[in-house]
Write a structure and sequence with these properties.
The structure is a single chain. This protein folds into two domains: about 100 residues, no CATH class; about 60 residues, Transcriptional Co-activator pc4, Chain A (Roll). It has a five-stranded antiparallel β-sheet with strand order 6-7-8-9-10, covered by helices on one side. A three-stranded antiparallel β-sheet has the order 1-4-5. A two-stranded antiparallel sheet has the order 2-3. Helix 2 packs across helix 3. With about 170 residues, it is α+β, with helices and mostly antiparallel strands. The radius of gyration is 20 Å and the shape is elongated. It has four helices and ten strands; from the N terminus they run αβββββααβββββα. Helices cover about 30% and strands about 30% of the residues.
């Protein structure tokens, strides 16, 4: 797996789209970031680095959304610190997500796994041949039920983790 230093050299050397006329080099905006679990796609800007954390970059004068690595993203948007911060946050979230299923879940009187985390009470339960979840915010007296069923209890729990992560994310 390459390092940020390797990617810096690729940007500096003008690899891939960095040397293609008509491809903007500045003024891009990151519209999403995704953890692929392992390095598996090639950065679409330098066309050289295999990446795990994909920054989805958009530009008003370029039709396609490019899937790029951290350093290319930082150079494209003119803010390497912001790109590195996004990636560090994603790495932290991935690590927490892996530990989520190993937490000590309690069992309700009805036999359903439940847990209090980050100000929410989470309950997962069997529904229509699958698993569903409820997330309660006692402070705001709000309850949210998963719209769909999940094949396993673990998938329902991971949906809850992702849902709460989005609720806690700072608004742009």
């Amino acid at each position: 797996m390459g390092t940020h230093e390797d990617e810096e050299k690729l940007v500096a050397s003008g690899r891939g789209k960095w040397s293609v006329a008509g491809v903007p080099h500045k003024g891009w905006q990151c519209v999403d970031i995704e953890d692929l679990g392992e390095p598996q796609v090639q950065c679409e800007m330098c066309e050289s680095q295999t990446i795990r954390y994909v920054h989805y970059m958009e530009h008003p004068k370029y039709e396609e959304v490019l899937e790029v690595g951290c350093v290319c993203a930082g150079n494209m948007e003119g803010d390497l610190v912001a790109a590195k911060h996004r990636e560090t946050t994603m790495k932290s979230t991935s690590s927490k997500r892996k530990r989520w299923l190993t937490r000590k879940w309690k069992v309700s009187a009805k036999g359903n796994p439940w847990l209090r985390a980050d100000g929410y009470r989470i309950t997962v339960y069997e529904r229509a041949g699958g698993w569903a979840a409820t997330v309660s915010d006692d402070e705001k007296d709000k309850v949210f039920h998963s719209r769909r069923n999940y094949k396993t209890e673990e998938l329902a729990k991971l949906w809850v983790f992702d849902y709460i992560t989005k609720l806690l994310a700072p608004k742009a």
